[in-house]
Amino acid sequence: MPDESHGPGGAPLGDEQLSSLLGSQRFGALATGTGGGRPHVSTVRYAWDPAQRVVRISTTADRLKVGRLHEDPRGALYVASDDFGSFAVAEGLAELSPVSTEPGDEVSRELLALRPEPRDAAEEAAYLRRMVADRRMVIRLRVTRLYGTVVPATRP
């Protein structure tokens, strides 16, 4: 139960709780900067690697977020709990992988690892071919700052 002394703003979450929240979700909002100083926000599917403190995001080379991260590698991923009672923000510098160019190359294997579903050999081969055809790549957000809060439930 959250500490009520923090008032309506909520109580800060510890690093372990934040990491757990990031690991429990699959979708978040990635914020990147624009040339004009405004944020660009896009919904992304991601995977959290707590040991390496890296968020991995599958994307295509032609997406706006890729261009923005080429210009300025700073990014932040916002993730909320299922009930929106708590949230985590993972800030860091993005590293962009090369585009997958051959089924089974290092990038397509990294993309394959982002899929949680079990798959057979034929499905895996088709997926690897699709990663090349789609010009897929990986955004690796190397997290340097992690913060968030839990907001107490409103009483009736």
Residue-averaged pLDDT, rounded? 90
β-strand percent reads 35-45%
Using the CA coordinates, give the radius of gyration. Answer: 17 Å
Main beta-sheet strand count, sense and barrel state? 6 strands, antiparallel, barrel
Q: Which structural category do the helix and sheet elements fall into? A: alpha+beta
List the strand order in the largest sheet.
2-3-4-7-6-5
The run of helices and strands is EHEEEHEEHHE
CATH architecture name of the domain at 4-98 and 138-147: Roll
The low-pLDDT segments are 1-7
**Intertermini distance:** 17 Å
Overall outline:
globular
Domain Pyridoxamine 5'-phosphate oxidase N-terminal: 16-111
GO molecular function, one term: coenzyme F420 binding
Protein name: PPOX class probable F420-dependent enzyme
Keywords: Oxidoreductase
Descriptive notes:
- One of its GO terms (cellular component) is cytosol.
- GO terms for molecular function: coenzyme F420 binding; oxidoreductase activity, acting on the CH-CH group of donors.
- Mean pLDDT is 90; it is low at 1-7.
- The longest helix is centred in the last third of the chain and has 13 residues, at 121-133.
- The relative contact order is 0.24.
- This protein starts with 10 loop residues before the first strand and ends in a 6-residue tail after the last strand.
- The protein is α+β, with helices and mostly antiparallel strands.
- The protein has a domain at 4-98 and 138-147: Pnp Oxidase, Chain A (Roll).
- The protein has a six-stranded antiparallel β-barrel with strand order 2-3-4-7-6-5, surrounded by four helices.
- The protein has helices spanning 15-24, 64-71, 106-113, 121-133, and strands at residues 11-12, 27-33, 39-49, 54-60, 74-80, 86-96, 136-150.
- The protein contains four helices and seven strands, in the order E-H-E-E-E-H-E-E-H-H-E.
